[in-house]
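User: Before I run my own analysis I want an independent prediction to cross-check against. Here's the chain; please return only the structure tokens and, at the end, one sentence I can use as a sanity check.
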Amino acid sequence: MKSIVCILFCGIFYLPAVFAQPANDDCLSARLLTDVSGWCSSPAQFTTAGATSEGYDRAKCFTGLGDTDADVWFKFVAIGNTVNVNVVGAVADHAKGTLRFPQVVIYSGNCREGLTEVGCFSDSRGDNIAEIFAALTIGETYYIRVDGKHNAVGSFQICVNNYNAVPEPSGDCATAVVLCDKSPFTVPTVVGTGRIRDRLNETCLEGGESSSVWYKWTCDQPGTLTFRLKPVNPSDDIDFALFLLPNGLEDCDTKIPVRCMASGENGGAPLLTWINCTGETGLRDGALDYQEVQGCEPTDDNFLAPLQMQKGQSFALVINNFHNTGNGFSVEFGGTGTFEGPAPYFKVSKLKLPVDTALTIWNTSSFKGKIVAYEWDFGADARPRTFRGARPPKVVYKSPGKKSISLTVTTDRGCVVTKVRSLFVTAKPPKPPK
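Assistant: Structure tokens:
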């Protein structure tokens, strides 16, 4: 009898802790994300358990019949023109929570005056992962709404990477995207290979390319290079090879492998014997090996030693999704070395000005090569809003608030870099009484 009473008594106090209403259950109480450059929450840090419907219109992609929209909300201020939001729940073998059939939508606007969808995705197949990309206006506030289809509730990990978009990836070294700074970015999908079957059998990637992309760069300031590759789906096996291009970016025929990563699943063996060879990979401080071959040895950890770059040296990086699922990955660079590229910059006549006051902008970008395009975005409620060319016109803002101006420059080699500066627009002062 005592046992029965204890179970009932304890259960009464246990349930509210499990199903307590999340603090970010409503748009008005959305959790502010202050770091959105390659940021991820901890696994299972957030949950939709206990969430309620607040009466907002259903997102267009939330199509589950009878769903009650038990959702939670996040918000952030855009620091780049593109965002990738990734919600991971009960993914097989690499679960980041318990949520099944996650759904995610991104809104512009605000909770009181109205929200406008800018992107939406619903996991209808039961992959238990939802990923979305959207184009943003730098400096604007955006809202993220997370839900579960079929009234599913549970914990999840959320990742947000807000960055300035790089050109579409190439499957060949010869036409690889040239990187000219170490800003993080995300590749949405990786499908197939290029036209040229690059000789990867001479590296640890003995099976060659399955779904691959290439990137190239030239070192500017000498120093170390580290990077982290994070698969969108934690179950995917991401491999890579890093090459020195002794004759420069244009010559991919003579490339020398300097790092190679192919470790992964030990076929037929228990997951615990090769789990260290899954998930994130790259070069990191503290790692000592230059290569990890296929399979997973006891000393493998999916990371290789940093690279020491010298000024003027060129490199090529091929990234391959061994599982050929089509899923992409995110890239974050580190280390003390830098990439050669243009330095976009501009000055403004005022950092604080009233509404309807003309702002003068001077382009002071520099590059020892050739810049072939200048693209400006002057921010919300600017007149004009955008401009192409080296000499921007005067700009007027029609609403008060913090504004962000971005300048994106492109070189003749396809290198793209963006510079952002912010200013503050005040309300027009009242007219003096007559």
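Sanity check: Residues 1-17 have pLDDT under 50 and may be disordered.
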